[in-house]
Design goal:
Elements: H1 2-18, H2 26-41, H3 49-73, H4 76-90, H5 93-108, H6 112-119, H7 132-179, H8 191-214, H9 218-228, H10 237-248, E1 251-253, E2 256-258, E3 261-263, E4 267-269, H11 276-303
Antiparallel strand pairs: 1-4, 2-3
Helix pairs in contact: 1-4, 1-11, 2-3, 2-7, 3-7, 4-7, 5-6, 5-7, 5-11, 6-7, 7-8, 7-10, 7-11, 8-9, 8-10, 8-11, 9-10
């Protein structure tokens, strides 16, 4: 237990100091391999669920089984640095903060075109159609949701299942980001990746929602989670963003422009419209929640009587 906790602490420290690798990130290679495999297998106009499941298995099973073999057979002194490296590559806390601040800074300075350009790098909605609250709303929602995916779910599966767990989660989450769209091409082919990602994120998302509440305004976070999350189209993003909006004391969700049309979305949270300070508030919420998770892991280990 302590080996995993110390590896998690080291990986979080590495992410804070170094951030993501500038080039040669394994997820970039995974994306290229996934694109090639999808073009080969997904040839039907309306996709095929069986081939989508096969694609997930082909891309996920070999690295996860290799990680499992290493976990079982390598001595701790060789395995530990690999665990640190694996979690560091899966985490994205510093990268998330850099993307968020790249939006918040020009927005606070009144440079709406630059704020729109920066938020367009992290969201899929039509950024050129966003007003200042719309830019802040898009960036805040991205921080809260990606904090759950890229930080807390990765940390959860690492602490629960070590290197195989974090690899499985990160690969499936990446495939869902590539294929989990409700379009004719991906509706059926991406179903396996989307459903498996929902399953793997179910517990971490709810722990993240609770953490956002504990690190912000707890009462409003819990009420928004209870009353609003079920109306969101994602079973995991709903609790995370509803609790995050309540914890921050702002209103998120609502109509947003996608592909030239307004998409109707439920309202999340209660309070004023977000602004540049809200983006910074979301990042601070994630930082405090990350400290909470690490402290909780150490406390649980101590209570369980595990020797450091």
């Amino acid at each position: 237990m302590w080996s995993l906790i110390l590896a998690a602490l080291a990986a979080v420290a590495l992410d804070r100091v170094l951030g993501e690798p500038g080039r040669g990130h394994p997820l970039v290679a995974l994306g290229r391999a996934a694109d090639r495999l999808e073009r080969r297998l997904n040839r039907q106009a309306d996709g095929d669920r069986g081939r989508g499941a096969l694609a997930v298995a082909v891309l996920a099973l070999p690295p996860v089984l290799a990680a499992l073999a290493l976990t079982l057979w390598l001595p701790v002194w060789l395995l530990w640095p690999l665990q640190v490296l694996g979690l560091w590559l899966a985490l994205g806390a510093r990268s998330l903060a850099e993307h968020g601040r790249a939006v918040a800074a020009p927005l606070a300075a009144g440079d709406l075109p630059e704020a729109r350009r920066q938020v367009g790098r992290i969201v899929s909605r039509d950024s050129d159609a966003l007003d200042p609250p719309g830019v802040a709303r898009a960036a805040t929602e991205s921080m809260l949701e990606n904090g759950a995916d890229a930080v807390f779910a990765s940390l959860f599966w690492f602490l629960v299942a070590g290197l195989p767990g974090v690899l499985l989660h990160r690969i499936v989450n990446t495939l869902d980001a590539l294929w989990g769209y409700r379009t004719p091409r991906y509706e059926r082919f991406g179903k396996a990746a989307a459903r498996l990602d929902d399953l793997l994120n179910w517990v971490p998302a709810r722990l993240t929602a609770l953490s956002y509440g504990l690190c912000g305004h707890l009462g409003p976070a819990l009420r928004c989670w209870r009353d609003q999350a079920r109306h969101w189209d994602s079973p995991n993003a709903g609790p995370v963003m509803a609790a995050g909006a309540g914890a921050l004391g702002v209103t998120l969700g609502g109509p947003a422009p996608y592909h030239g049309a307004l998409k109707t979305r439920p309202t999340l949270g209660r309070g004023p419209a977000p602004d540049a300070a809200t983006i910074e508030g979301a990042l601070a919420l994630i930082r405090r929640a990350l400290v909470l998770w690490l402290a909780a892991a150490v406390l649980i280990a101590l209570l369980c009587g595990a020797a450091p």
